[in-house]
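Quick check before the chapter quiz. The format below is the same one you will see on the exam, so make sure you can read both the input and the output lines.
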Amino acid sequence: MMNNTVTEFILFGLTQDAKKQKVIFGVFLILYLLTLLWNLLVVVTIKTSVTLGSPMYFFLSYLSFADACFSTTTAPRLIVDTLSQKKTISYNECMTQLFAVHFFGGTEIFVLILMSFDRYVAICKPLQYNTIMSQRVCNMLVILAWVGSCIHSSAQIFLALQLPFCGPNVIDHYFCDVQPLMQLACMDIYVINLLVASNSGTVSTVSFIILLISYGVILYSLRNHSAEGRRKALSTCTTHFIVIVLFFGPCIFIYTRPQTTFPVDKMVSVFYTIGTPLLNPLIYTLRNAEVKNAMRKLWCSKI
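Here is the expected output.
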């Protein structure tokens, strides 16, 4: 870690307007609670239902868990800071938040890739599906997703720790990330910027391309299926594709461009750190009859 004269940062937040902050507090508190409720509901439903034992739902439960954790890395501090006069965060807390954001964000990316692989095997190799996507294989794939996200977030925190801070210490954002921190570093950030873009930017862009190719192959293979089979497969793939676009669009916008900032950056970040984790379980449950039926059975039995 570099020697710093800065021991804490001040998070600027989304706005300094007192009236807008009260609105932000109410809106984001509701959104965060709904995110936790929906995602935990999906996890509990899948874990307790005997009808949702396929690998697709196994991966979906991990996606919902990652969504809940991903939102928790940023939303609570944003909500609390709207009520605080001085939105300070210590250096160590800032680095911890940065690591957590990239860890759970990376996990979400890798789990989405696993879900696309599962759909590829189910549609393109149906006779070998149970052999290829055995429980042991699924467990190993999830472990690889956790390891991959840990490597990605470790690289991010390593780069952030190379930045010396001599002041000012106001981060023009609502959470700690490498890009806004680089704006405060008292050094030439050209090399660090290239490394950050080659890490986060490459992970986001390459993953998005892999997902597009996989779903392209899936759609091409559907030409040999029956009309009913095509309809069901298209419904599932459409759901997955919506989630992919909603998540990767903002990530690619933020992490692949040169080191410049735009006023819209913070709102784009809100969308992928808070909005997408809320929308994911809604998209999957509203378009999936099996999940909805399992939820009804679970809660009817509890009542």
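If your answer matched, good. The first strand starts at residue 8 and ends at 11.
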